[in-house]
Design a protein that fits this description.
Elements (H helix, E strand, L loop, with lengths): L2 H16 L9 H41 L16 H28 L9 E4 L4 E6 L16 H13 L3 E7 L13 H20 L6 E5 L12 H7 L1 E7 L6
Parallel strand pairs: 3-4
Antiparallel strand pairs: 1-2, 2-5, 3-5
């Protein structure tokens, strides 16, 4: 091949290998990718801001509810606080209350096991206190809140424990599901509350304790022990409960 032809071929091949000159700056797809990443970043920043706002609102709401219900929290940062006499006194009161509950349980169990009237009583012990359950027929005339003469022995025993021990007492009245008929109470709510209040008034007068240690509650027939399917079961559900509890925040 002549020398001139070879030079032409080499020149053409060299020019074809170089290709078009590259464009200056970033390729076009990078601009689209950058816009997408920026939008995603903005989206997640908004999500984070919404989440923080919800937490802040929740903390505000929780604080308002806590203050409304009077809940108090201890300051965890004050770990090295000096000795507090009030805390020591409260702890001692709790220990004394536990001892009083144990002594009460022993005395009332002995009382329940003796005598004809006291045999109608039942005693339950749980983590919160000691409960004495008495049928309404042992305390009141049917359909009334008038205390029987024979019931005074039971109520005197309850009052005696209140005067001897530093405990609180809740008197709870219960009836069956039958509507009241032929008496001065228009509903079982009124009858159960009146019976609880009558017992509480008698105990307060006999024990001479502060009214702040006593409560009376009427439940009507909302908390039966057994189904109201017979006269015997209804008699069981008609009852008054004397619930001793130690003094504390739950009162």
């Amino acid at each position: 091949m002549p020398k001139k032809d070879q030079e032409d071929i080499i020149f053409v091949e060299g020019k074809a290998d170089d290709g078009p000159p590259p464009e200056e700056g970033l390729p076009p797809w990078m601009a689209t990718f950058a816009d997408m990443v920026t939008l995603l970043l903005c989206f997640f920043v908004l999500l984070l801001s919404f989440a923080n706002q919800d937490i802040a609102n929740f903390e505000t709401l929780k604080g308002s509810m806590t203050r409304a219900f009077g809940v108090q929290h201890s300051d965890r940062s004050a770990k090295n606080v000096a000795f507090s006499e009030s805390e020591h006194t409260a702890s001692s009161m709790k220990e004394d209350a536990k001892k009083d509950l144990k002594a009460l349980a022993l005395e009332m169990r002995a009382f329940v096991n003796e005598g004809k009237i006291s045999r109608l009583m039942k005693m339950n012990i749980d983590q919160m206190g000691v409960m004495i359950r008495v049928p309404s027929r042992a305390l009141f005339k049917p359909g009334t809140a008038q205390i029987n003469t024979r019931a005074k022995g039971i109520l005197d025993k309850v009052a005696q424990q209140m005067s001897k021990k530093n405990l609180n007492l809740i008197v709870r009245g219960h009836t069956d599901d039958q509507p009241t008929k032929g008496n001065s109470y228009s509903s079982n709510w009124e009858l159960s509350a009146a019976r609880a209040a009558a017992c509480l008034r008698y105990i307060k007068d006999r024990a001479g304790v502060s009214p702040n240690r006593l409560k009376a509650v009427g439940y009507a027939g909302t908390k039966p022990l057994v189904p109201n399917t017979s006269a015997k079961n209804r008699a069981i559900n008609q009852r008054v409960e004397f619930y001793y509890q130690p003094p504390g925040d739950s009162w």
